Amino acid sequence: MGVTLVVVHYLTREPLARLLASLRSAAPEPLREIVVVNNSGEAIDDLLLDLPWPARVLVSGRNLGYARGVNAGLRAASEEDVLILNPDVVVVPGSIEALARCAADRPRAGIVAPRLAHSDGRLQYSARRFYNWRTLLLRRAPLGPWAERTRAVREHLMAEWDHEDTRPVDWVIGAALYVRRRAIRDVGLMDERYFLYFEDVDWCQRMWRHGYEVVYCAEARMVHEYARASAGLTPRSVRAHAAGLLRFAEKWSAVLYAMTQHRHRLAQIATLLLDAAAAAAAFLLAYGIRSAMGGLLSRPMYRLESYAGLLFFILVVTVSVLAATGLYRRLAFTDGIDRAVTLAKVVVQAELLLMAATFLFQTPRYSRVLVLLLLPFLYVGLNLSRAIGGGLAAGARRQGFAFRRVLLIGSGEEAERARASLESARGEGYEPLAVSALTGRSETPGDVARRIRGLLEAERVQIVCLAPTPEELPDLLSLGYALRDTGVAIYWTGALARLGSESAMRRLGPLDVVLLHAPSRGLSLRVRKRASDLLLSLLVAPFRWSRLRGYLATHEEGLGATEAWRKVWTGERSWVGRSAYERDLWAGVPDWARLALESVRPGVVTPADGAALDRQSRVETELAYLARFSLAEDLRIFLRATGRSAP
């Protein structure tokens, strides 16, 4: 079994030279090729001369970050397993062979990591327990040596264990990772939202969620010549740690994930509060100027608390006009000019309403001068609040927070083009997590569906986008139908999708797509189908009883109307569903079609009844019904079928 070595290089010429020298000395037998991802762009080809293995340099043109650099190397790797090493690792003879043996001995191992030592021989705590809030605070806050001595941190670092035996652990640091290709296929690549830090914790977390083990291999020993980068409180290090921590928490914290699922509603509330604060600040500034004018005007000014009613009215009017203008449904503006013009209209409307109120309510505390002074401050305040809110939202999207995670499924150029388009649309809030090709595998369609379901759950994916080649089209569309009850939105993109009607096209960021399933309906296909059956049982079938009996006499030998009603009520069958293909063991039904049709119960009535169709045409008709299912469609098919039978 061969191994590809992947190294991400960024201004590490000397450490990389030492790593390659140690490889020459160790001469690991499983190693077949070396892939170096050059994130800094400096010339390093001379370091790879005269190596006993084929070596390639992937020049990224810019610093991709660690996770994206590793993923570039994984995509380029051609061997079955991959060894990921930091440039500052020194390979000890026999260590790579030990990792390969350990992986072979443990079929459930997804990641195998060696024992790491500092250059002076001291043990490096490279195997860890997963973080909790206490260890996150102690490890990531600048608390110095005191934090390292606490019990919580020592338990996190597994310091009580001598590290002399091989065992599964929660996670291992990413300096040296031996990764199985099948685990990468099932779990996916590293999450590229992490620029540096936490990508290794995240990957190990996902391995465990997909049923793979993360194994610490004591027999494999390497030297890691590094000084902990996070020990220095440089601004760049602090930013990287903070960004990694927030991304990790947003992804794996149930509370934060639930918040991101309702992020638009939360953004609306936050925007409303910012607008209210801007209006209150504008009122205070206007009051201050009016008070400073003193005796220039005949009407007196009262104490600030006397204007509480006016302030409340200003807040209500401002927020109401913004809401009526649709500026809480639409939070973003095309550009600064759009924002300035739109908010000018809002402020003028609010000002007219407030001024009208001063005539309606003849009270000296409704000062018209105060309301007039409010105009420029309210305009500036609302512009600032919306600019701040928009800037924070755009910055969060650029940094990878609150993304809509898109799982792309396909294996051809269409899938790669879609991935590249969504990659360029990160600023719009999209992130392609993986491109999963389904062809050329020994898996059955059912196995593929189960694997994809696991990936959707483990990665908390909100959107599935199918990008099939012509050969994959029936398989992937059937897979899409089989995923309808997962709660994700399902789209179909590519040249084949664009052949459909223009009315069916949608936009998913930069992609033209066809919507196959929208989770906004709130209920899964299974639940909606069951509701359709119960409604037909109670409100329609009893009034078509004699016609139903006649239909069953000609179409369902041995099944009476009462028995049919009982089977539907108990969930054994549907009033409208597929043919009972299981009677002949699904003979003549392709595997991809069976994958979609098995999710539907056999029907008392089928969409193909009354038509002389061969098996293939019947399957196609029932797949089309599944794609357009609705209560109205079920009612139409049921009435049409029973309407042909004489009472």
Q: Work out the helicity level.
A: 40-55%
CATH architecture descriptor text of the largest domain: Alpha-Beta Complex
Biggest beta-sheet profile: 9 strands, mixed
Secondary structure: number of strands? 19
Question: What share of residues are in beta strands?
Answer: 15-25%
- Overall CATH class of the largest domain: Alpha Beta
The CATH superfamily of the largest domain appears as Spore Coat Polysaccharide Biosynthesis Protein SpsA, Chain A
Shape: flat
What is the residue-mean pLDDT, rounded to a whole number? 82
Q: Structural class of the secondary structure composition? A: alpha/beta
Overall tally of domains:
4
Q: Show unreliable segments.
A: 227-233
Rg value: 32 Å
**Total DSSP helices:** 23
What is the CATH topology assignment of the largest domain? Spore Coat Polysaccharide Biosynthesis Protein SpsA, Chain A
End-to-end CA span? 71 Å
Structure description:
It is a single chain. With 647 residues, this protein is α/β, with parallel strands linked by helices. The chain folds into 4 domains: 3-125 and 163-226, Spore Coat Polysaccharide Biosynthesis Protein SpsA, Chain A, CATH 3.90.550; 263-389, no CATH class; 404-521, Rossmann fold (3-Layer(aba) Sandwich); 525-643, no CATH class. It contains 23 helices and 19 strands. Strands 1, 2, 3, 4, 5, 6, 8, 10 and 11 form a 9-stranded mixed beta sheet that branches. Strands 13-12-14-15-17-16 form a 6-stranded mixed beta sheet, sandwiched between helices. Helix 17 packs parallel to helix 21 (591-597). The protein is flat. It starts with a strand and ends with a helix.
